[in-house]
Amino acid sequence: MLTVAYLANTFPVAVEPYVNDEIQELRRRGIRVIAGSFRRPAVESPVQHHEHEILYLQPLRIRTLLRAAALAVTRWNRISCLLRRILTRGDEPAGRRWKALMHTWLGAYYAVQLQGREVDHIHVHHGYFGSWIGMAAAQLLGIHYSLTLHGSDLLTHGAYLDTKLERCRFCITISEYNRRYILQKFPAVEVGKVSVSRLGVTVPERIEGVRDRGLEQSFRLLAVGRLHRVKNHAFLIRACAQLRDAGLEFECAIAGDGPERSSLTRLIRKNQIEDRVTLLGHVATSKMDALYRHSDAVVLTSQSEGIPLVLMEAMARGKPVLAPAITGIPELVTPGKTGFLYTPGEPGDFLEKLLLLYDLIRTARVSAVARLDWVVHAARLHVLHNFSRRRNLTEFGDRFLELIAVD
To answer: Does 341 reside within a domain?
Structure first.
């Protein structure tokens, strides 16, 4: 039986359902998958996994660390190429090089954990430090490894990606934009090594109409995403202050938690829009349908993304979306056809598109009603045909088995 060790930085987590989806798809095909995670999730995930089914690196154990050091020394020749890259090549600062050395040790630690489990291949989800750990473990075990690249792990935090891509058996990424970026930035990478495997969502059979809440209620915006600087929620909050100054009746709910919560709370208070903008914190997956249902439009203000699931979910539920024209998002959102895009970093353009959405949703003009109905219908069909969870998982499984079998 083919055995794949599948490593993520944190698993399972609700915001990355695709990791569990892929593991289950491979298991469905008869592959033995050893799910692994560098750290344990901070909050309970709706994904059902028994702890004994997941191989956690943390908390680190002294005895295993010593065995890892011994393995690295005895199989020095297998990782010498990685150490040369860390110490003698590239322009990374000393602090990053030191971290890479520690991650190489952790790779040996992971290899020790996998010894005796007859692992044939290691796959790592995301290109962060976990991919170096997985790559080092594969080198020490004398097996192949592969990785999946999403958005920020490729575009803003792509540490040592030259080596990770050089050493991988294959690389899966989630958009054509990402694939072009990889091949342009790393021209030494073989074209056939990089494949696109789109994410997907489940499309509900029945949805509520855009106007079913009634025009007498306030305009409701919804943003969903971790409260992290890259998600740029501060941009949205400042735009909400401008909407208030323009005299619009609206509400904005932001679902998600993270390190930026305190600073965003202060920004809301500073702009005196506590009655308009609400930070909901972490919202359980089971409650997300209700949030989408009670919103008029879903907005995204990230500075870096792959192709966000939140946009797919909103479009599948018949909600108009507004997002920045960055990275792979235009592969999902076609301006004026399946949603609305704004020029990234341009608050004036973002506000203009918000006002357009407000007008289309709140007006009784027949032409506006027809235009919006056409957009949300086209968006839903686009997700159904190109971002279906079941269909794309099947294609992922087919492609993974094809690539893993290549000599």
So the answer is: yes
